[in-house]
UniProtKB/TrEMBL annotation:
Name of the protein this chain belongs to: Integral membrane protein
Coiled coil regions in record: none
InterPro entries reported in the protein's UniProt record: DUF6332
Keyword Transmembrane among UniProt keywords: yes
Amino acid sequence: MSGTTGQGRRSQAERDAITVEIGYALVSATVVAVAVIGVVVAGPVIAFSLSEGTERVLLVVGGTLAAVAFFVRLATVLWRFSTREQTRRGQTRRGQGISGRTRGGQTLGVPSQPSQPGRTSPDS
């Protein structure tokens, strides 16, 4: 947990975003694993009349590949989120949080939040 030192507490919105991202990672990893099982095991079993031994080998290979695909997808989604979140938190902490407002294709250097809670920005 040394990576969280000095970052302060997470807001409810950040905790919700993490929860949603974990749910998305689990669901998408499950879909990938089911697709691998379908391609490696179900496809050949349906398309060809295979012996029982061959079906068993396909099941073991398909299960192993599905497990690997599940964990690779899960780690990839969570790694990307973590990297994106650290970058965002670093920019906000240094006061570099920029809103998505543009003028003539150029991003304006306007802070994304007012400097004091409960107050509006002068240009709002």
